[in-house]
Write a structure and sequence with these properties.
The structure is a single chain. By secondary structure, this protein is mostly helical. The protein has a domain of 88 residues. Helix content is 42%, strand content 7%. It has five helices and two strands. The protein has a two-stranded antiparallel ribbon with strand order 1-2. It is elongated, with a radius of gyration of 27 Å. The termini are far apart. The mean pLDDT is 78. This is HNH domain-containing protein.
């Protein structure tokens, strides 16, 4: 091994990466104003800077799922409540809402997403059966969540 390496050989040390400070809303607004000023004076096309959203839909859904999981475990519901033909019972469980999620988010009824009366624990097979059948969904919710 000593024959391969010469006396002048040394390993290179790479510098540690420099951490960039997190941008705030003020930084985004400043860059947008600067871009507008530049575009007006020179007539150059400018890339728009997207502002960060307060809470995205996916973050809201993740929070909702965590709250519902705890509530269903407290009540002892850990398998499919619907039990239609070909039910998977405890596999691929998810929450089936009384209405579509857009109904809750669009009408500013976000609080209802977390309510026990608005949700049923169902496997994918059973959830698919009631997903697009409004009458069956109403019947199921009347029976399970009076």
């Amino acid at each position: 091994m000593d024959e391969v390496l010469t006396k002048t050989f040394t390993f290179m040390k790479f510098p540690k990466p420099i951490k960039k400070p997190k941008k705030t809303m003020k930084d985004y607004i400043k860059t947008r104003k600067l871009l507008k000023l530049k575009s007006k004076s020179k007539g150059v096309k400018v890339k728009k800077v997207k502002l960060p959203k307060e809470k995205t839909r996916s973050k809201l859904i993740k929070e909702e799922r965590e709250i519902l999981k705890k509530e269903f475990q407290k009540k002892g519901i850990t398998s499919c409540e619907l039990r239609f033909k070909n039910c998977w019972k405890t596999n691929a469980l998810g929450f089936s809402h009384k209405h579509k999620r857009n109904w809750y988010l669009g009408k500013n009824n976000k609080e209802l997403l977390w309510e026990f009366n608005q949700v049923i624990l169902a496997c994918n097979s059973c959830h698919f059966i009631i997903e697009y059948d409004k009458e069956l969904t109403k019947k199921v919710f009347k029976k399970l969540r009076p």
